[in-house]
Amino acid sequence: MNTTKIGKKPVGKNHPCYMIAEIGSNFDGSLKKAKKLIELAKKSGADCAKFQSFLTEKLLSTTGFEKRVAFQSRWKKPVWEIYKKAELPREWHAELAEYARKLKIDFMSTPYDYEAVDLLDKIGVPAFKIGSGDITYIEFLKYIAKKGKPLLLPTGASTITEIKDAVDAVKSTKNNKIILMQSVTQYPSPIEDANILSMVSMGEKFGLDVGYSDHSPNMTVPIASVALGACVIEKHFTDNTQNQGPDHPHSLDPKSFSTMVLQIREVEKALGDGIKKVEKSEKDTRIIQRRSIFTIRPVKKGEKFTLENIKCLRPFIGLSAAKFSSVIGKRASRDLSAYTAIHPSDY
Q: DSSP characters for 257-314?
């Protein structure tokens, strides 16, 4: 696996996890609020503020959702109307990208049509994050991949065959900058469906870096994912989870997002380098808690060391307790007082 750069940040093994605040439709139709959320995402520790770029008429059929499917039964308005209200106007994209640049946070948006891909490429997004629903839209994936930028490829509601076809399609364009992201396409998604280990197995199967695009409550899944190797985390982000809208309820507010980032950074520190060794903080404790060989009564020069005159005691300032059996029967090379730590020169 090669390190991928998203903007100026190297992403992959041995690099800090790339944190995406998925604003989605949580800007509530307001350019001012979209900017505010970018600013809050930056302050909350996100590396990227992300939106979604779609036009309803290019995404939905006019009749396909006349009968609501199960997960939309809770929506009080028609599906078309919900999507229309959530659109990010095309004329806002460049302004939001420039605002993000000034704040030194990456701007990204998921494209859902070819014109959106071209627009995002033109304004300089550092990578493309695909929607899970488009993993079988092979020609669209190829079009995006040909832009030559890293692809974050989520795998929600996908089979391993569909994932392989998508990866092969992207690679056929000579673009190998792919990060596979485990995801569960439900909002919110049940914690018991998270299947973080599938993220690990996908990385091993395809030889790619992995991440997690999470829709579950709270922050357990992202933190656990990082411990298991995720190099990218995407989490929905809002200023207030009580706001009305399709994405607010399964989002983190700035305080929760900041806590998640902090805990992920702590996990990264805790993971270490994988090499078992005596750590710096353990060196004194190693001496205090380990045993070495001590006399427990005076021993004369020439006298043999026996179970009656030596014992393994703390601290570790002489011969290790591991040498005890080899010292038994040896003769003292000098007079030793009681509770003297024995060294190799003492026999």
A: HHHHHHHHHHHHHHH--S-----GGGHHHHHHHS-EEEESS-B-TTPBP-TTTEEEES
Helix (H) or strand (E) holding 202: helix 196-206
The pTM of the whole model exceeds 0.85: yes
Are 262 and 278 spatial neighbours (Cβ–Cβ below 8 Å)? no
SS (H, E, C) 96-162: HHHHHHHHCCEEEEEECCHHHHHHHHHCCCCCEECCHHHCCCHHHHHHHHCCCCCEEEECCCCCHHH
The predicted-structure confidence for 55-92, as pLDDT tens digits, reads as follows 999 999 988 776 655 555 566 778 888 899 999 999 99
CA 203, 206, 208, 213 torsion-angle sign: negative
Q: Which two tokens stand for residue 233?
A: 């985390």
Q: Which of 291, 301, 289, 290 is nearest to 345 (CA)?
A: 301
Burial class (CB in 10 A: 0-12, 13-18, 19+), 76: exposed
**How would DSSP label each residue in 29-92?**
T-HHHHHHHHHHHHHTT-SEEEEEE--HHHHS-SSTTSSPPGGGTT-SS-HHHHHHHH---GGG
Largest CA distance in the chain: 102
Round to whole Å and give the CA distance between 124 and 8.
Answer: 13
* Token pair recorded at residue 138: 């092979």
Helix (H) or strand (E) run with residue 205 in it: helix 196-206
Q: Which residues contact 30 (CB under 8 A, 6 or more apart)?
A: none
